[in-house]
Amino acid sequence: MTGEEIFQLFAYLLPAIVTGMVAFYFFRLHTRNEEGRRRYLLHKDTQKNTLPIRLQAYERLALFLERIAIPSLVVRVGPKSSNKNDYENLLIKSIENEFEHNLSQQIYMTDECWNIIKAAKSATIQMIRKAGMSESDTADKLREDILNETMEKQSPSATALAYVKKEIGELW
Q1: Cα 32 vs. chain centroid, distance in angstroms?
Q2: Average pLDDT of the segment spanning 58-80
Q3: Which residues lie below 8 Å from residue 107, measured CB to CB, with a gap of 6+?
Q4: Which of 64, 65, 140, 166 shows the greatest Cβ crowding within 10 Å of its Cβ?
Q5: Cα separations (Å) of 10 from 61, 93, 141, 165?
């Protein structure tokens, strides 16, 4: 092979290689776009089906937070006897029962939101226990102490509820 034949071979191969590379590039670009479109359509369909379920889960947990808020809890769960320890245990048991009832809703929300809800539950129980260590000797006096303690600061439920509302706002 002479230099001229090699040059002619190269002159024929160069446009074929360039055309092949351009075709490969556009084919790859098209494939990626199609994959992205399919993924978007699948996500859109999934979102359409799961959004109502997720909103219902957030709704149930908002209701849980409202129900364990100290003022509504103390009004809803009245003392059955005058023993303050029995009343303290009744309030805590009520919170635990509400929590267990809504335990399955955690799969529809972020871990951070679920941890904030658990923290609100624990903080509420802690506030009840703290008030239970007071000098009160009857359930009615304990009820009064619990309410007085929560009047001074924001309820953990209110903080968690604000976070839940913020997270729901991010779903749109």
Answers
A1: 32
A2: 92
A3: 57
A4: 65
A5: 72, 85, 99, 67
Q: What is the pLDDT of residues 93-142, one digit of tens each?
A: 999 999 999 999 999 999 999 999 999 999 999 999 988 888 878 888 88
Alpha-carbon distances of 120 from 10, 25, 70, 86, rounded to whole Å:
75, 54, 11, 22
User: Which residue type occupies 84?
Assistant: K
Residue 54 structure tokens: 């997720």
Query: Which of 61, 70, 63, 68 shows the shortest CA–CA distance to 130?
Result: 70
**DSSP codes, 90-121:** HHHHHHHHHHHHTGGGGGGS-HHHHHHHHHHH
CA 82 to chain centre: 39
